[in-house]
Amino acid sequence: MTSTKNTNLECKVKCMVCPGWCYSKVNVRTCHWCDCTVHKKCHRDSLGCIKCCESNIPGYYTDNCEIIGKTNYIKAASLKFNPYDTAHIINSIGNSTEQDENNEFSAVMATLR
Q1: pTM > 0.70: yes or no
Q2: How far apart are CA 45 and CA 43, in angstroms?
Q3: Which residues have a Cβ under 8 Å from the Cβ of 88 and sit 6 or more positions away?
Q4: For 18-35, how does the pLDDT look when each residue is reduced to its tens digit (9 = 90+)?
Q5: Residue 10: band (very low, low, confident or very high) from pLDDT cuts 50, 70, 90
Q6: Which residue in 12, 48, 49, 93 could disulfide with 33, CB within 3.0 to 4.6 Å?
Q7: CB–CB of 40/28 below 8 Å?
Q8: At a CB cut-off of 8 Å and minimum separation 6, what does 38 contact?
Q9: Angstrom distance (rounded) from CA 98 to CA 39
């Protein structure tokens, strides 16, 4: 029995993010930030390649648990998420001000209660 698979390499492109090679044009992407050729798995669509994400986005590999703390993360995981609740632990980023309390989200929150 003979193999029908084509043994000719159509392309061989070195991925600039990982140590691998791309052997198919279908799996090759070009990062629009650094113009490097990368694997499809090493490309994050409009964010660019993984190297660009690491260098341009602070805390790219940071987990939610690291941001809000382990005890708050456990407490937040047990709560039902409400994007309109400004007092919800997930929605509280930074210090709140009086202006935040008097915005339109407060009106929406009042109608939801």
Answers
A1: no
A2: 6
A3: 76, 79, 81, 82
A4: 999 988 888 899 999 999
A5: low
A6: 48
A7: yes
A8: 15, 16, 17, 28, 29, 30, 31, 49, 50
A9: 48
